Amino acid sequence: MTTQIAIETWTLSWSAIRDEFRARLRGLHLDPWWEHARLLRVMGCSHGYAWNIQQTYNQRRGSNLLLSPLDWLLVEHFALYDIPLRGIARGIHKMFDRRDRAPEIQHINSLAYCDQAILKETQLIKEASVGSHGYDWDPDERPTPHTLLLAVPPAGRMTFAAMQSERQVDRVAEIFQVGIVFTVYPDPWHKSEAQARYGVNLEFLDEAPCNGLDPEPANPFLHGSGPAGRRTASRQPFLQEAR
Predict the structure, then answer these.
(1) Could you tell me the residue ranges of all domains in the chain?
(2) How far is residue 222's CA from residue 72's CA, in Å, rounded to a whole number?
(3) Do the beta carbons of residue 15 and residue 155 sit within 8 Å?
């Protein structure tokens, strides 16, 4: 997992990263999301790994929305247990294919809906690789640190503005040699579930900006945090099986 040294290093660097956003994005016709962005977590996985999971999931969901804080914690655990992107992609496709064939499955609002299918597909890949040297990793998919998880207020215009800034965000990430992905401010339910599922204290790592903006309750229509996407089962069985 991410070391405390890495967390402290990137927490100190976050101020400079936000200043770079401010310099590059000021004057663009976008809501100033960078003034309200908070550093929520330093994830122990590469940006390529995180980005590919987000893209595959959003493509099958049919909407380009932000993953919830809990979904990103699940991505981090996939990386921790060396779950290959092939297994993740197959599991996501299998669950959405099942949804397409079953009218009673109306919504898949969380990556957690796919975790058992991902585990099963990874096991099949593992069995197929017996006698070889292990998983056939692509160079960019191997989960190596670090990716910063930035949270923005769940106001629709602000999350849209953050997503519209992708090119500039990538350039800033390249300057600082770190990955950057987005979520929304965690609400009390996110925090409770993060503790129950992963033993994670889901609190901001930085100091609150002096902009007078209080965190709002997360909007379930902006990401997979609504009641249909909430799973209360502990993640511990997944972690034990994935070893």
Answers:
(1) 4-207+214-241
(2) 15
(3) no
